[in-house]
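STRUCTURE REQUEST FORM
Protein name: ATP-binding cassette, subfamily B, MsbA
Source organism: Thiohalorhabdus denitrificans
Requested output: structure tokens
Priority: standard
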Amino acid sequence: MTPGSDQPVQSSVGLYGRLLAYVWPHWPRLAVSLVAMIVVAGATTGVAYLLKPVIDQIFIEEDETLLLLLPLGIIGMYLVKGVANYLETYLLSWIGQRAMRQLRDDLFARLLHMPLGFFSEHAAGTLISRLTYDVDQVERSITRGLSTLIKDTLTAVFLLGLVFYHDWQLALVSLIGLPLVIGPLARLTRKLRKSSRSSQLARASMTRVIEEGVVGNRVIKAFNGEDYEHARFHKESETHRKQNMRKAQATALSVPVMEIAAAICIALVIYYGGYRVMFGGDETTPGTFFSFLAALLMMYDPLKRLTKINPVIQQGLAAGERIFQMLDFHPEGNEGSRTLDRVRGELAFEDVWFEYEPGAPVLQGIDLEVPAGHVVALVGLSGAGKSTMVNLVPRFYRPDRGHIYLDGVDLGDLDLHFLRDQVAIVSQEVVLFNDTLAANIAYGRPDATREEVEEAARAAGVMEYVDRLEGGLDHVVGEGGARLSGGQRQRLAIARALLGDAPILILDEATSSLDPQSEKLVQRGLEQLMQDRTTLVIAHRLATIQRADAIAVMDSGRVVEQGSHAELLARGGIYAYLWETQFATPAEQSAETG
Ligand SMILES: Nc1ncnc2c1ncn2[C@@H]1O[C@H](COP(=O)(O)OP(=O)(O)OP(=O)(O)O)[C@@H](O)[C@H]1O
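Status: completed
Returned output:
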């Protein structure tokens, strides 16, 4: 059922390659930013180098020409560095943003064409976070990752070169101090990472409790669960506090530990370097020593950033892996290519089998004929397979065995787009987009004129409540249509289907009861909609069943009884049972039997 889900997790090389494919089209800019990074590293090292003539020639030898030239040189160096830094950051962001827009576009396009089964297997939140959070993580690892990896490595290497150039013996002595800095830093970083992971988990647990407190507030109230929920929240909130304190402790420790270790390192250098300046002859001048020290100190920042970049890159790669896994799912296939000039709307199911999970068939040999323009009501106990059966008509799923024909043509042979144009669906949950009423009605028919929209709205009974809304048909319905009542939403869905004017209608009647007035209006809209259309309706209302041309009774994935209301009642089978227990009011039952 889920093609693509068995994809192997890709290797890191493959992953890098695929990420690179998004960056590569921008290689000229990448090249310029690389050059800019080299310039930044060179300029930083240049500044450290200039300290030598500053001390030796200006302070000691009191050279007046250099007194003018060197300060200008420093300004020039920083100007060059500033321009290069700007270019590098700007260009990398440009590349990162372009690559991510492309990745997001590809992902969303793929998402829209996923088979329906994909959506029942993946939580909406997870999919949304792929497109938002995960893509951001990848972007961060590209821009920050590349910049740090290349620019900071180059800067550190150039500075190290300068240090060895000035005095290789002193350089070796200072390197002895390096483990002093790196050792504690590595330990602290590990601790920090662990505590930040625990803190994130604690926050997620806490958020879950908050969410349940908000979403499930009705139930909490009904069961007097406030104290229980509060205690649960307090516990999670306390865990969150403790984890955050651990993190804060590690963070607070990291600066002093680093600084003390660095101080020991510098003390070593000053002692040995000073000794060499005093007693070592000419090769180590005070200028060399200060330039050396400055280069050493300037290595601190790039090295620190390099030690921190790995988690960013790892997170980006993990996010990239999740993104590519989603991109690798197979989209819905459109094997068919046929279209029909005029669709009458005759539907026929022939020995149709279907299973969601292997070995558990939900439909087991459905046979059903729906002549053009007829209304067939599907009834049956919950889980009998009614929704599954109607979902096969717009090819949301495909039968595992058997065939479904539209006007004698196998659905599988039809072009998917064409097929879906022929089918209107009005389901229990009306999905509305956060747009105007008019735009919601015209969804799928962007070419519809205002008159057509109004006509559909009138026929569906939308006009009867539109006047009370600000802006009339141009009123924005709110997210998910939250500002409309259940009945109003249903009438809107009916208007949408009317405007679509497809020859086949699939109707999944709402089970939730509307007030009698709303019910009557919805019913009237539905009557309009079913007119001259082949209709398969999952019926929950008596009026619909009575209006149907035929009733198909489903049980355990089969059509077990077919006929008119009277015929089926007379048979005394499942339908008669459902009639007694679900559909009819006592008065109707006695009228029927009496
Ligand atoms: N996406 C799915 N994945 C796996 N199993 C599913 C899926 N959708 C439905 N089923 C299973 O298929 C069977 C038939 O479900 P279906 O929704 O078609 O029944 P129904 O007759 O429409 O029920 P109801 O009237 O309650 O909506 C049920 O056992 C259900 O658990």
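Reviewer notes: The pocket of adenosine-5'-triphosphate is lined by residues 120, 356-357, 362, 380, 382-388 (CB under 6 Å). The chain has 22 helices and ten strands.
Form closed.
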